[in-house]
Amino acid sequence: MSAQMRDDSRAELIDLLLGDLEPADDEALRARVRNEPALQRELSELESLFGLMRRGEEIDVEPRVHTAIMREAKRITRPSLLERLAALPALFRFRFRHSLVFRVAAVSLGVHLIAVAVLWQIDLGGANAPEHGLKLAFHPDEEVPEYRPDREFVFRLGRARVSRSLRLKQFGAEGQRDDIRTGIRALMTRQQQDGSFSSLDDTSASLRDTGSSLDDTGRAALVMLAQGANSSDTTDRGAALRKTMGAIRRAVDEGLSDGFALSALIEDWALSYEQLTEEQRVTYVRAILTLLPQVSGAGAGESLVLADMAGFPVSEIQLRSLAPDGAGLMIKGDVRVAMQARADRVNASAVIARFQEEGGSHASTALHVTRSDVKAWLSPLFADAKANARAGDAAALLTLQAPYRL
Amino acid sequence: MNALLYFEPPAPPSVPYPSECMPRSDRELMVAFKEGDPEAFDALLRRYERMLANYFYKQCYDRTFAQDLVQETFLRILRSAHRYRPEAKFKTFLFTVARNLWIDQHRSRKSAPRTISADTPWGDEGATLAETVPADATSAADRMEHREAAGLVRQALEELPDGQREVWILAVDQDLKQREIAAVLDIPLGTVKSRMNAAVTRLRGLLGGALR
Asked: What is the mean predicted confidence (pLDDT) over A239-258?
């Protein structure tokens, strides 16, 4: 056998051993091998070589590697935000309750929607949220090992905010919730005793003395709330706000939420509403209304609507606090934008038409409105919402939940 | 009291999947994964992770490095899963990714001096190198006495040029068809066959005594 023929034969035998031959070729070669001792020897030697080489040491994959890969696989296969949202409307047809903090947890979808201070609706294939407040977070039961900015979903927000519950979850700070409440109470008590807070640092120290485990951000936010609520001097209040907002923004840069304290305050206000004196209620509302535009970037007028959306009985409390003499309330023209945003979710044309009739034809137009004006504007919204709710409109149902439903 | 709603939708009815009767193919698993089923990927992972680990291990004989490469390969597969087409064979897809990763890592690793710790597991029974080589073993004969067949294989593989070793491992250890190897390595089938032939010649020369 020539060298070339030997090489060719060996190549065929290798193909045979590797199972690379077509069945007919495989059978034909085996027949040849049976009849040619030289091929038999070659095949035997190759089998020995392959057999020996297959006895090499082998390793197993470590469990940590498997776990790490599967963690990523689960993360990747989690439905996209859009997919989750698209799947949500059906859920709203199920039972729900109104709440200041309206929360729907779609457990099976792994999504946790928290709508705070907001009305919103979901259309097929997308979500329309008002400019402020819709906060989407992963379900708290999901593994959130570390703070990940890319896990935040905020619609149309200039600044990212994450639901407080997620924040708390992320930072293992669920306990701070009660501390915030304790802190607010302490501040309110001190305010009543002292009449005012002398300085940010003093107040912060005072808060520490209460035993609160709040971090600097929480303290600063509370101080700001108290000072903002307490001061009737625009300059002082502005300085306090700027100072505190600076602290909060730094905290935001470090991964904390600037909406943290606000939502805590709103919740506390709501939860303790019945126990508060009228004066305390007004103080709370003033603090919230002071903080709201700073935190949300909203204008004063828009804040009114946001506050209303959050469930503050605007006609009962807010007007009294801001305009205790009942003379009326100056609302800047930007309220129109907010009103329209709201109206879009129910019946834009009716509200805007009414608004324009009142003279709100330009965004910068200042309007004098009264409590009854506000009520008049809002009532068609709820009439429409009720009608739509009866027709099965999920968004309308949500609309009914937020305002005036504490 | 803070009123919160947690709505838990009813669990979907349990429908037995055909996989309970017969294992799903790689393609089916990959498609299922692309459609959002992480368990499908778990099945794929279990099917191929050990194979892949040994593909890397036999090229470098570094367990830790091999583990890292397995992890990185599958992470790359996950990230590029959207590019997977059902008409492509998953195993080829997997080893193509693995091979590209190996080239990347091997290139940078080559520039670093290679060291093997005495605590590096060695041999089928997981003994360390220090345990495998007796302290008083001075002659080649003594060392050979303590070497297992695995040691011979390892030594032989390390003697092979990279191209031949790669083809050999994919063909003999990973059971890839030579045509698949050509696709993975992006070389002609004829080159695969000639490398395989050359590897056989070389291994016979290296292992002649052990084969007899």
From this structure: 43
